[in-house]
Design a protein that fits this description.
This protein is 43% helix and 23% strand. The protein has 9 helices and 11 strands.
Length: 288
């Protein structure tokens, strides 16, 4: 099962580096597991001729079996060992980083602890901090420029200007912006525009991220989104288009250092692994 799990991670994350981060293992350990699996089967599962890892035809065929076998294994272990793990965990996540990481975390956690319900609370960072302080949420993720007391930084991600695909709203002056009222990115973005001497106006000042996305996708304004988290219907405005570079933001985790229960600690570990795997993929090219 260990070799199949490593193989599945390499295939799904696109390389050994990211797979190792997701599995909380060293790269050499993952590479050894893949080598062992290939030796057991007498087949090459990975095409290592290019910089980017690709599956051979045998590897593609095995991947479907590996997914089913790992899933069935996790389900069996979870059913047989989850007697002490029941109840509910409340996880708070800002709207803009729910995808693509959190669905994978929830899927993994449910397979391991099927009797524990995870209640997902999606809101703004400021609201999540307030709810966490009142004891209403067990774990929170935040997007913010600094790390607060009791938290830990998982990864640091650059902010990017985002507009409509092929749009020209970024050319307009004053620059038309769309931000939620409680967006933690907003003050820093406005400060960068002021420092660059760029006139701006707030085209949309809303409570809903969906309102912001609709306005930007209609090419009526631009906004700022963390790299790698922009919806498919929006497009990053490339550097050199006259807009100032934006700062980086930390994705922080609170409630994991002293988790309220053992199973909450397991959920925190999965959150760490998935975000750090994503951070590894954005930080450097995929390696074999």
């Amino acid at each position: 099962m260990t070799t199949l799990r490593s193989f599945q991670a390499v295939a799904e994350h696109g390389g050994v580096t990211r797979a190792a981060a997701a599995l909380n293992l060293t790269q050499s350990a993952v590479s050894m597991q893949i080598k062992r699996l290939e030796e057991m089967l007498g087949l090459d599962l990975l095409d290592r001729s290019n910089r980017r890892v690709a599956l051979t035809p045998a590897g593609e065929q095995l991947l479907g079996y590996a997914r089913r076998m790992v899933s069935l294994n996790d389900e069996a272990v979870g059913r047989l060992t989850d007697r002490v793990y029941e109840g509910e965990i409340v996880l708070g996540v800002p709207h803009d980083i729910v995808y693509p990481v959190i669905p994978r975390v929830l899927q993994r956690f449910n397979a391991a602890f099927p009797r524990v319900k995870v209640q997902l609370n999606s809101s703004f960072t400021t609201n999540l901090h307030d709810a966490f302080g009142r004891g209403e949420i067990d774990l929170i993720l935040t997007t913010e420029a600094v790390l607060g007391p009791g938290g830990e930084t998982l990864i640091e991600v650059p902010l990017r200007w985002v507009g409509a695909p092929g749009g020209g709203a970024w050319r307009q002056r004053p620059l038309r912006l769309a931000f939620c009222r409680h967006c933690t990115f907003r003050p820093g973005v406005l400060a960068r525009l002021e420092a660059a001497g760029i006139d701006w106006e707030m085209a949309v000042d809303a409570e809903s991220d969906r309102t912001i996305e609709a306005t930007v996708s209609a090419d009526l304004a631009v906004t700022a989104i963390l790299e790698g988290h922009a919806p498919a219907h929006l497009e990053v405005v490339m550097a050199g288009h006259g807009l100032p570079d934006l700062e980086t933001q930390k994705i922080n985790l609170y409630g994991a250092r002293t988790p309220r229960s053992e199973v909450t600690g397991h959920l925190a570990d999965m959150v760490r692994q998935e975000f750090r795997a994503r951070g590894a993929s954005q930080a450097r090219p995929v390696s074999a």
